[in-house]
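Weekly modeling sync, notes
Attendees: S.R. (lead), two postdocs, one rotation student

Agenda item 3: backlog of single-chain predictions. S.R. asked that every request posted to the team notebook include the full sequence so nobody has to chase files. The rotation student volunteered to paste the first one in as an example of the format we agreed on. Action items at the bottom.

Example entry:
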Amino acid sequence: MPNAKTLLRRPVTAAILSADAVPNALRRRLRKPVPGQNGDTAIVKLEGLTPAAETPDVQQHIRTGALQFWVAGTFANSWLSNLDFNALPTNLIDYYQRAGTRGELRDLAGAEAVWETIPRAIRMAGPEALQEFRSGRDWSHIVPWSMGGSNSASNGIFEESSINQARSAETMTREDFALAQQALNSEAFRHAVTQTASVVVTAALVAAVVEGVFAVMEEGLRYYDGEINKAELHARVLTRLGKRVALAVVISGLVVGLAFVFPPFTPVLSALALPMAVASFALLGVRFYSLSAAWAQRVGIEPASTAWQQTKDFSGWAWQEAKSVSVEARQGANVLSSRALEWVG
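Predicted structure, as returned to the notebook:
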C-alpha cells in the first residue's frame, strides 16, 4: 500500500461518504469539489435545510457569525461584572465614599451614586481604568462645601485637579460644568474606541485561526485531487482568510457598537455568549468531522497500525502549508495592526 506522501502527489477520485459512515445525529454527505467561477469549495450537504443554506459561503457565514457573537458575548460578561459596584476592589469603594468630602464618609448608596457619575464606557473598562481615571482628577463640588453645598452625587462632577484647585471656593458656573462634562465625554469616547478595538482584534484573530484551519483542509482537498496547484492553493486560502477576517470585524464592530449605543443590549449579548459558543463549536465540529473523514479516505487510512503515521504525514504537510500561507498573511496583518493602534492611540 503506498504511503501518504506518495498519495499526496497523485490525484485520486473524490471520496463519497455513505450515510453508514457517519453517526445518525451527524448525517452528512461530502460531494466532490466542483470548480466554479467563484472558486467554491466542497460543501457539506445539510439535510433539511434550504438549498441556499447548503452553499459553502452561507455555511461559513453561519460559523463565523456565531463565533463573533460568542467573542463579543464573552466581553459583555466582563463588562457586566465591571458595572457591579459591589464587585469593585475595597480601595475603590473607599475612594468613592470619601471623594471630595474632606474626610466625611458617604454611605455605600451615596458612594455608588458618585461612581455612577463616571461615564459608563469608563466603568465598563474595569478597576484598572477607574484607577487611571482618578489619577489627576478631583470630585468637584458644584456649590462649594463652604457655601452649604452637599456631598451628594448631584452636587459634583469629576474634573482635573488643577481646575478644581484654581476655582477654590467659588461656585461652578454653567461653562465650568459644560467643560468638565465635555472632558468626561472625550475620555469615555477614548475608552469606547479602545474596548471596541479589543473586541474587533480578538474576533479577527479567532476568525483567522479557525478559517485558516478549514481553508487549508478544504482547499487542500482540491490541491490533493489535482484541481489546483500550490500557488492557487495559497491564493485561495489567503482570499478566504481576508473575507472571514473582514466579516468578523464588521459583525463584532456592529455588535459592540450596539452595546455601547443601546446599553440594555449588553445583558442580552452576555446571555447569548453560551448558546452561541455551543452553536459555533457544534458547527465547527461537524465540518471538521466531515473533512477529516474525506482526508482519511484520500490517504487510505485503514489498518490501525498505519493510521498514526499517515495522520502524522498529513498533519505535517498541512502544517507546512499553513506556515507558508501565514508568512504571506502576517505582513498584511502587521500593517493593519500598526495602523489600528496608531488610530486608537
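Discussion: group reviewed the output briefly. The chain has two domains: 4-82+191-344, 88-189.
Action items: rotation student to repeat for the remaining queue; S.R. to check formatting next week.
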